[in-house]
Amino acid sequence: MSAFARMTAALRSDAVSGSLLIGAAVVALVWANSPLSDGYESLRSFTFGPAWLHLNLPLHAWASDGLLTLFFFIVGNELKQEIAHGELRHPRHAILPIVAALSGVLIPAAVFVAVNLFRPQAISGWAIPMSTDAAFAVAVLAVVGRHLPSPLRTFLLTLATVDDMCAVIVIAAFHTAGLSPMTLGGAVLGLAAFGYLQNGRGRFPDRVRAGVPQWLVYAPLAAAIWTLTHASGIHATMAGVAMGLLMRTSPRPGERASPSHRAEITLRPIMAGLALPAFALMSAGIALDGTDGFWSSTITFGILGGLIGGKMVGIFGGTWLIARITRAELNPGLHWPDIAAIGLLGGIGFTVSLLISELSYTESAALTNAKGAVLLASATASVLAAVCLGARNRYRRRNVEPN
């Protein structure tokens, strides 16, 4: 195996991708609080791109609007795979993680609203504690829970996928400004062409698939869809979700794998090795000397309470309640302490929580407090989840035969 093949294989590992994400965030935090902090801010604000396409953007915007689109494409693609072939194909099997995701979204949002109910300038961040960072959470599970049953990872991934789609809906519904119907119509036409080439049958799509390198068709089309979506006023990452949901998940005669699977194999290392670390590097650099009001801010306590307490109560409580009032049951390989550990893992907000923070606040102090709270809550949830998962891991290693 070549060095490049070994590197891409490593980047598909949950532990490696999560470590890179954490490492980039640490570098950003240290850099922003070092004597070289001016260089960090200069890098974030470095602006480039074609102005005639309204894409003369600072580097941090390219990271959040551009590179993060790849992350959301993977989210949409994974959701399509789950609906077509995975847990979400059978509602009876998926009901517990789906309810866990929904209650794990609603309860943290309610906690934030309760804390900031009389602070109208802060209430716009209600969606910040809703999201679970799948890459970060799965990495913690992979490192700490090596003897835990595989259905636990499936439960977490299903929960995180539904959780991410809730975040997508929130971004599309509440963070769209200055909608341009004409450019939005162009994006929709581009998506229709994308879907036709993926799923349509006929001389043209079949000839394209058979006779032209795929990237020569899809890369320019995806770039056009992204550009039109960005210009329409809808957050550009929505283009990634839409294209992911349009991927074909079943191979046709003569194909070794479906386009969905090939895209996953090709793009996941780029997402893990470039897109998410670059976003973390551009977003997690918080100057700690600018957080004087951190512990007096209701934004801080709304996010901490939502991510650490609200996620735990929502995920565990929702799962337990639905199992009690319906015929839904836990996978035989799982027990309630395992779900409690997943509830703690759900408090790792990070990527999407940082993105929603940037979309929710324009005032510097509010944004700094929100990002600081997301980082603190994610770190705290990671430690608590690692302790709980470690205890479950030791118990299973001593008392349960590996699955």
CATH topology of the largest domain: Na+/H+ antiporter like fold
Please, how many domains? 2
Order of helices and strands: HHHEEHHHHHHHHHHHHH
Overall outline: globular
The class by helix and strand makeup works out as: mainly alpha
Main β-sheet, spatial strand arrangement: 1-2
From the N-terminal CA to the C-terminal CA, the straight-line distance is 30 Å
Average of per-residue pLDDT values = 86
CATH architecture call of the largest domain:
Up-down Bundle
Query: Number of helical runs?
Result: 16
How is the biggest beta sheet arranged?
2 strands, antiparallel
Unreliable parts = none
Gyration radius, to the nearest Å?
21 Å
| CATH homologous superfamily placement of the largest domain | Na+/H+ antiporter like domain
Q: What is the quaternary state of this protein? A: single chain
Task: Describe what this molecule looks like in 3D.
It is globular, with a radius of gyration of 21 Å. The protein folds into 2 domains: 3-29 and 61-175 and 256-399, Na+/H+ antiporter like fold (Up-down Bundle); 178-234. A hairpin with an 8-residue loop joins strand 1 and strand 2 (57-58). Helix 5 crosses helix 7 (150-174) and helix 13 runs antiparallel to helix 14. With 403 residues, it is mainly alpha-helical. It contains 16 helices and 2 strands. It is 72% helix and 1% strand. The model has no long low-confidence stretch (mean pLDDT 86). It starts with a helix and ends with a helix. Strands 1-2 form a two-stranded antiparallel sheet.
